[in-house]
Amino acid sequence: MTSPETATDRVLDVLVVVPVFNGGSLWSEAAAALADARGASRHHVRVKVVDSSSRDDSVAVARTHGFDVSVISGADFDHGGTRNTAVRGEPGDVYVFLTQDAVLDDRSALDHLVDVFKNPDVAVAYGRQLPHRNANPIATHARLFNYGEQSHVAGLEDRGRMGIKTVFTSNSFAAYRATVFNELGGFPERNILSEDMYFAARAVLNGAKVAYVADARARHSHNYSPLEEFRRYFDIGVFQADHAWIGESFGGAEGEGMRFIKSELRRLSRIAPAWVPRAMLHNALKMLGYQLGRRYKRVPAALRPYLSMQRKYWNRG
Question: What is the pTM of this model?
Answer without folding.
Answer: 0.94
